[in-house]
Design goal:
heterodimer, A: 115 residues, mainly beta, seven-stranded mixed sheet, four-stranded antiparallel sheet, B: four-stranded antiparallel sheet, 9 strands, 46% strand
């Protein structure tokens, strides 16, 4: 099946710093990617929809200036958590839609811990 | 997308069939039933999906009732590695650029 890769798989940073998470579709082109956040013992919550070449669409309650999304190519979307704080500590997961079939494939997730 | 209802947890003995139910009584005619699972600290993994006919692949079988208001995911011979949270999701046809909306899922624990 199609592969979606996230990097880094885990990151620890100090409060106030920015962290970038990459999501790559390795063997297909993805015009649309989705970013989810998952807190412990909770389900995945959609944060934003990332469209190649255009601005991301954010879900209600998600700050677009804090969670910067860039989808500059058909195989790469990045999520930057700016001025991270401990409450931003979470498991961030991306998914990518395979263009020909429309199926969604998920990355392995990136665990962010803000000290 | 229609809402789904799943039991919060289930246990299954290793080697036995695991039958995971899902209710989606408000499903629309153009909505598919998708199943994903999430093993602890990993991204969700696609299992199977269907519209109205029963489906089978190497991982599982999907049984959808005739009125499409409920479905059952069957893992024919559960192993310890099948312990995960299983999500039943209703979504319009692939290619619609619609995201998956995750409910609470069912925590399946396969017991030795």
């Amino acid at each position: 099946g199609a592969v979606v890769s996230q990097h880094p798989s885990w990151v620890i940073c100090k409060s106030g710093t920015s962290v970038k998470i990459e999501c790559r579709s390795l063997d297909f082109q993805a015009t649309t990617m989705f970013w989810y956040r998952q807190f412990p013992k909770q389900s995945l919550m959609l944060m934003a929809t990332s469209n190649e070449g255009s601005k991301a669409t954010y879900e209600q309650g998600v700050e677009k200036d804090k969670f910067l999304i860039n989808h500059a190519s058909l195989t790469l979307s990045t999520l930057t958590v700016t001025s991270a704080h401990p409450e931003d500590s979470s498991f961030y997961i991306c998914s990518a839609e395979e263009g020909s079939t429309g199926e969604l494939f998920f990355g392995e997730g990136s665990r962010l811990t803000v000290l | 997308d229609a809402k789904t209802t799943q039991p919060p947890s289930m246990d299954c003995a290793e080697g036995r069939a695991a039958n995971l139910p899902c209710n989606h009584s408000t499903i629309s005619g153009n909505e598919y039933v998708y199943w994903y699972r999430q093993i602890h600290s990993q991204g969700p993994q696609y299992i199977i999906h269907g519209l109205k006919n029963n489906e089978t692949n190497e991982m599982a079988s999907l049984i959808i009732t005739e009125d499409r208001k409920s479905s059952t995911l069957i893992l024919p011979h559960a192993t310890l590695r099948d312990t995960a949270v299983y999500y039943c999701i209703v979504r319009v046809a692939a290619g619609s650029a619609r995201q998956l909306t995750f409910g609470s899922g069912t925590q399946l624990t396969v017991l030795p």
